[in-house]
Amino acid sequence: MRIVLASNNRGKLAELQALLAPLGVALLCQADLGVGQADEPFCTFVENALAKARYAAAHTGLPALADDAGLCVDAFRGLPGVGTADYATQFGYEKGDAANVRALLEQLQGIDDRRAAMVSTLVAVRHPEDPEPLIAVGRVAGEITCGPRGDGGFGFDPVMLLPQFGKTFAELPAEVKNAHSHRGHAARQMLALLRERWLQDPGVGP
Q1: Which of 94, 133, 169, 182 is the most exposed place for a label (fewest CB within 10 A)?
Q2: Domains plus CATH for the chain?
Q3: 160-162/134-144 β-pairing
């Protein structure tokens, strides 16, 4: 079965391809199919993921999977949340992972409460008007370090410390990260939903 990933993020594509490999699903990047980015006007992960999945399905004719994920910092009342990807731009930096990390560390200077959670919401639709989208949510709580650590992953991985390992996501081997990450938790839920609901449905698509 072919499913289009409603994202142009190659890091997400690689992680989700590995996590969904047991299903034998061919996960295609929407950019490779000539599909641009959907609008994400909502303030919750699930609403934006649903909008992206519907958009990709409408423009490709394929079932679509979307991931809306972000960092929720306790001291910032859950922000940056859905604005995670563009976080640095509000402080005058260019958009990008390194700038996001720099801006976050600057904003947390002098703040003792460094608790945060990485949240991933996956939404899958069979077609744009699918009334019963599949929804899976993964959440991992940790702390923001005082400086980047590790060379793996992407996004805020270098500063997101997992207390049970004493390491950031960026310091963990890929297989360990996938087993314990927010996206890993959500992907395993989605894998079970896809297996139960779609793989028995001949009308899902090619």
Answers
A1: 94
A2: 2-198 (3.90.950.10)
A3: antiparallel
Does the pTM surpass 0.90? The reply is no
Using a pLDDT cut of 90, give the percent of the chain over it: 77
45 is in an annotated binding site: no
Q: Is 177 annotated as a binding residue?
A: yes
151 annotated as belonging to a binding site for a ligand: no
Q: Which of 67, 68, 97, 201 is catalytic?
A: 68
Residue entry with tokens 């004493």: 166
User: d(Cα 58, Cα 134) in Å, to the nearest integer?
Assistant: 17
**Among residues 197, 186, 183, which one has the least CA distance to residue 126?**
197
Cis amide linkage into residue 80, ω under 30° from 0: yes
Is 130 considered catalytic here? no
Lowest mean pLDDT, pick from 106-110, 127-131, 144-148, 199-203: 199-203
Tokens of 102: 């720099």
Please tell me the distance from the alpha carbon of residue 5 to that of residue 93, in angstroms, as a whole number: 28
pLDDT at 65 over 60: yes
Q: Which of 67, 143, 82, 139 is nearest to 112 (CA)?
A: 143
